[in-house]
Amino acid sequence: MKPIQVGLLxxxxxxxxxxxxxxxxxxxxxxxxxxxIQITMVADLDVAxxxxxxxxxxxxxxxARAIIANPDIDIVIELIGGYGIARALVLEAIAxxxxxVTANKALLAVHGTEIFAAASAKGVMVAFEAAVAGGIPIIxxxxxxxxxxxxxxxxxxxxxxxxxxxxxxxxxxxxxxxxLKEAQRLGYAEADPTFDIExxxxxxxxxxxxxxxxxxxxxxxxxxxxxxxxxxAADIKYAxxxxxxxxxxxxxxxxxxxxxxxxxxxxxxxxxxxxNVEGAMNAVVVQGDAVGTTLYYGKGAGSEPTxxxxxxxxxxxARLHTADPEHRVPHLAFQANTLADAMGTLPVLPMSEVxxxxxxxxxxxxxxxxxxxxxxxxxxxxVSIDAVLQREADExxxxxxxxxxxxxxxxxxxxxxxxxxxxxxxxxxxVLAPITRIRKEELN
Length: 444
Prior knowledge:
This protein is α/β, with parallel strands linked by helices. It has three domains: 4-135 and 304-340, NAD(P)-binding Rossmann-like Domain (Rossmann fold), CATH 3.40.50; 138-300 and 344-351, Dihydrodipicolinate Reductase, domain 2, CATH 3.30.360; 355-440, ACT domain (Alpha-Beta Plaits, 2-Layer Sandwich). Helix content is 40%, strand content 24%. It is built from 17 helices and 17 strands. It has helices at 13-24, 26-33, 47-54, 64-69, 84-95, 105-122, 138-145, 160-172, 176-186, 194-197, 200-214, 233-241, 303-320, 339-345, 370-380, 393-397, 415-426, and strands at residues 4-9, 37-43, 59-61, 75-78, 99-102, 126-127, 151-157, 224-225, 244-255, 258-269, 281-288, 292-299, 355-365, 385-390, 403-410, 413-414, 436-440. Strands 7, 8, 9, 10, 11, 12, 13, 14, 15, 16 and 17 form an eleven-stranded mixed β-sheet that branches. It has a six-stranded parallel β-sheet with strand order 3-2-1-4-5-6, with helices on both faces. The model has no long low-confidence stretch (mean pLDDT 94).
């Protein structure tokens, strides 16, 4: 059978990995796909660099639309990134009847509903395994491997930059700003790391997983997003003393009144496998009613790990290229005509309605009655206390200090309730600094 022809938009780190892995493993890939898969055309603004990667056998152009206009190209791989030109090119490729493979989680989290609808109308596929957790085949697992299950929740370390920073803060006892500079020096963090450290990148990814897990449209605008910039070394140390580690988690959960969709730092029990994922690695835990708990671990970024996911999508498309579009796996696992129904029955909950437990750290005056006032306010609000840890004043502020840290772990309570009681505690004259609140996830 004639090889399927692929056009590649962008041949940077991931694009060169795709080309190299496809060349190196061509025989193996062809045996699996049932036909050859060849990148025959590449578009990149740096034509000379692109030619150096692909050699003489591939046509290189500086205009992505030349690939879309080529009738011989069956699949377009979009590796440009961002929301702007990438969105236009993906929609143009779909309109031209091309299948699309993309690693662009930001594009799909924000414009996925429009893109998937256009692809369905045209009878083409949009595959995006590489958009979430790099080389870990989590999209395939959620969309196909776990299809018998009613997914109950997903919790993932899905941003390697923030996990590297938190791992370094814990192991070296350093504050965030110091470790961020080191992460930038080592290449783990971008010069502008905002998307990573503020949780936006993780929120894009968990938005896609949530849609696939629960059969709802992608709704990034409804996700709660909180990054790691306000975490201090003290909180990581105290968490460790209490038997927890702090991780930036992307969480989506089926609740009584809808779906939780949130990204924030979380205390996770040290005995959980996911709590022991260190450095720039990724991991995702999925809880299904039939299968129980499953864990997916691996490299969440990098040239060849991400290329692994891109090529897996190419193979899927090569296998299903001639199949009836009605009998392909739906983009978001559930049949498209059922997603609208899910919007009514499974709304994304506002953060105030989320129920979880909490770690609170209060810098307080070291005097009698402070603990009683604080715990009294929690009791009045109906918040049950799991544990209390009070540090010695000289341990916190040095010899002769008149301040101390009070650490409280709570049982489950509604976020809106916790917001109100934190405001009351903050108003106490004996509370001397802004209260630190970190959510706690047992992941049972």
